[in-house]
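Bench notes, afternoon.
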Amino acid sequence: MTEDQPTYTISMVARRRRPQPPSIKTPDDVYKLMRRRMNGFDREHFYSLLLNTKNVVITIELISIGSLNASIVHPREILKPAIANSAASIVLVHNHPTGDPAPSREDVEFTRRFAKCGELIGIQLLDHVIIGSESFASLKERGDF
């Protein structure tokens, strides 16, 4: 070894780091995480973000693909993977292909019903975010549940 060649130790070797899973603190965090995934859909796609006790995303579950203006979802379809993944809380997310993120009466009713179901088994619903073409609506921020 010459003087020009550095000596490498383990501390000098760059370690590969896995990307950290995202943490959800605000509805804007949900929008930033999901907007690209949901961009350009011509039908409603309904997802659940399963979170640990520190609000870090454990997994993102596609729950349902619906029609242009509806997605049929039952609470058990959301809760089954949440229980299997030991989720502490859930954020519901779906898109409105029309581009308008305003929640429908059905969106609000389902969210209220789901929040009660989650409460019964100890999995908190943190929010339900509806993604439009350029913006989003948070049912939690609107006070809808």
